[in-house]
Design brief:
single chain, 330 residues, alpha/beta, eight-stranded mixed β-sheet, 10 helices, 8 strands
């Protein structure tokens, strides 16, 4: 897609949103890198930390840091609402003309933000980090991640960038559009692709996690994939329809074959060389029953989301907010 771009200046205020869940071991390393980054960023910057119901010392470290530096704001959620909701809370509280979303584990280098700002000045509204390599991850993790992004591109949106997470810079007008989308089951990468606006990548090598454990094991990745597929696409419903058609064709083929064998026996008086018997019946019952249960399960996922959306509950609950007000940088 061709974009009409207008060059612009750096934002007067840049907001960096960092969701945190049990990151006490990573925060000292993050603090050091963020302090160095703030020295070279050419504009005022606020850091919006969202504590997503951490059960370790994360919140105490964040509050202490916010007392030391007025550029640090801490939004503490009342419980663990999940990564996508925590990022959403940060977007709601961010005041900058441009916003960067990144994680606390330093796998996405903060220094890449400088390259993102170059693309922002060129006129792009969304600048997403696209990974060239993933250091420190197992072959299984790299393989499942590779498959995840390609399946999501098919199920969610044709413009969904490959090998790209939530690490990105978003302009204020794009952020306002995103904040207007308040569905409970959120897949922010897909929502970014859906709203459009000029978008471009910056390429980088992903570093190993600086400390702690990954917050996206296979189980959570599968859950995110299911949530994204059901929230953005009718393809799972169409899959259940296709499954029903395939099972019906198989059942019809077996029925035709059984009639053919009966014709051979009773009309042509040929001996029965094959009797499907109970095995065929059981196989067909399992095929039909399994396809029905799969279809009901997929339909149930959609109905469950309709039910949850109909409640009209807020996406998150904030326990308290500490720090903030920016200053520094003239």
């Amino acid at each position: 897609m061709k974009y009409y771009l207008e060059k612009r200046k750096n934002p007067n205020l840049l907001s960096i949103i960092i969701p945190c869940y049990n990151e006490e071991s990573a925060l000292p390393f993050l603090k050091e890198r963020i302090i160095q980054l703030l020295k070279i960023l050419p504009m005022k910057t606020e850091i919006v930390f969202v504590n997503d119901g951490s059960t370790d010392e994360t919140i105490f470290q964040l509050v202490t840091w916010s007392k030391e530096d007025s550029r640090i704001q801490v939004v503490c959620l009342s419980r663990n609402f999940g990564h996508q909701i925590a990022v959403t809370a940060g977007m709601d509280y961010a005041k900058g003309e441009a916003v960067v979303i990144m994680d606390a584990d330093l796998q996405d280098p903060p220094e890449v933000i400088l390259e993102m700002l170059e693309k922002y000045r060129e006129g792009y509204d969304v600048v997403y980090g696209q990974r060239l390599a993933r250091s420190g991850e197992s072959f299984f993790k790299r393989t499942t991640a590779w498959a995840f992004y390609r399946i999501m591109k098919i199920l969610v949106h044709k413009d969904l960038p490959l090998d790209s997470g939530d690490f990105r810079l978003i302009s204020r007008r794009c952020l306002d559009a995103l904040n207007g989308l308040r569905e409970n089951h959120r897949f922010l990468r897909g929502m970014n692709a859906w709203i459009g606006f000029p978008q471009t990548p910056v390429y980088y090598n992903r570093d190993p996690r600086v400390a702690g454990e990954t917050k996206y094991p296979l189980r959570k990745m599968l859950k995110l994939a299911m949530n994204a597929a059901v929230s953005f696409s009718p393809l799972p419903l169409r899959f259940s329809l296709l499954l029903g058609i395939v099972v019906a064709i198989i059942g019809f083929a077996v029925g035709v074959y059984a009639l053919f064998r009966a014709f051979q026996h009773f009309i042509l008086e040929m001996p029965i060389v094959y009797n499907p018997g109970w095995a065929t019946i059981v196989t067909l019952i399992c095929l039909i029953g399994g396809s029905i249960l799969i279809s009901i399960g997929i339909l149930g996922e959609y109905i469950a989301r309709i039910f949850e959306e109909s409640k009209g509950r807020p996406l998150y609950v904030v326990e308290f907010v500490k720090g903030g007000s920016v200053s520094k940088k003239k």
